[in-house]
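Quick one: structure for this chain?
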Amino acid sequence: MPLTLPDRLPAIELLKHENIFVIDTTRATSQDIRPLRIVVLNLMPIKITTETDLIRVLSNSPLQLEVSFMKIKSHTSKNTPIEHMRAFYRDFEVLRHEKFDGMIITGAPVEHLDFEGVTYWSEMTEIFDWARTHVTSTLYICWAAQAGLYHYYGIPKYPLDDKMFGIFAQKPLQPMLPIFRGFDDIFYMPHSRHTEVRRSDIEAASARLVSEGAAEPTPLAIIAESAESGVSIVMARGGREIFITGHAEYSPLTLDTEYRRDLAKGLPIKMPQHYYRNDNPDEGPVVTWRAHANLLFTNWLNYYVYQETPFDINEIH
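Got it. Here's what it folds into:
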């Protein structure tokens, strides 16, 4: 089934060249289908790239999706044309009275700041709280995952000595969960971050919830991790919150672009690990994560959004 996207969104034409089926809002209104409503809070600087990356991985589901884009009022994007933002994004204040089957909150380039030091932190926490009553399931990616774990559960982030940068093998710890249906014993995920969350803090937070009378035996669970990159996926509230510390949605050249950008700026950046053929940037990347990335997003949409959301979207609570 196609994705329904705002009219004239640049990703439509970009993805049509990849043979991905998308339709615009005008055409979708003629179809008598209740699509899943997905809202994306895009905090990344180059928003058109992130839009395209996310739509690409969402497109493999057989479900029809209606994708909207949210922005925060307290921050102005400096790297995306204002005309694009006005055409395709709506403020949280405009969307707060609506309900959505699923939500994706992206990473943001603010890792060097304490959470409370982020200029839009107050609005972010308001959105986090809103999502719990207005969205069936929310994916939190990279910085958003750390921010959500901190806001909801008091889990801190820690600076890394070196940037976690590359493609790292991940192990599903609860392979029978629907999110891992069809997964291999090992899967790969891109990471690009300067901070981390730690297993010990997550386990302590989960134990605290149990002692406080949480309904679930393991209310906050690490469900995938890596020997190299650490905690990679955390699940809470039966899948209504899924925190992903990496970037499964990244396109093949995203890490290459980041690496060459930082080199050109003279920043202290190491070559991304397990990424280039023969560890040679001139030979290009070896793509090892795309199949599982598509499966991850498809399983989320099917088992944690479509199978759980009410037919009447206003019944979400």
